[in-house]
Amino acid sequence: MRFLSLLPIGLLAFLSCERHWSNPVDPETSAAIPWVELRAPQDRSITGKIHVDLNWSEAQYASGYQVQIAADNDFASVKVDTDRVETTFSTPPLRPDATWYWRVRPRFGRDGYKG
Fold it and tell me: Taking the model in full, what pTM does it have?
């Protein structure tokens, strides 16, 4: 997946990213489960808000989700790393003159993350 580097001035840019997390596996059948669909904000969205509402589709069999927001697309500089039960997350205040990357992966039962 290619990512466009955006450097807006005074605007917050959000890029979806699923790098470095492999597809999760169904704990009962060991079959690959498709990633959750990152719904909002849309990829390459630019907004003037410092709080952004993230939204993604529900993953079959998931007991929760890990959400990460980073300042780089390799996620070497993770700014938010949180676990959620819901398929939404409102970010803490983010620097508005930056590009932010986000990704979500499902969690399965007691075994945790499979991706």
Answer: 0.73
Tokens found for residue 78: 């993770």
Tell me which long-range contacts 80-84 makes (C-beta under 8 A, separation of at least 24).
Answer: 83/107
Quick one: tokens of 14?
């959000």
Q: How buried is residue 47: exposed, middle or buried, by Cβ count under 10 Å (0-12/13-18/19+)?
A: middle
Sorted by sequence, the CB contacts under 8 Å of residue 105 that are 6+ apart come out as 21, 24, 35, 36, 65, 66, 113, 115
pLDDT digits (tens, 9 = 90+) for 74-105: 889 999 999 999 999 999 998 888 888 888 88
DSSP-based helix, strand, coil % in the chain, nearest 5: 5, 40, 55
Separation between Cα atoms, residue 5 and residue 15, nearest integer Å: 9
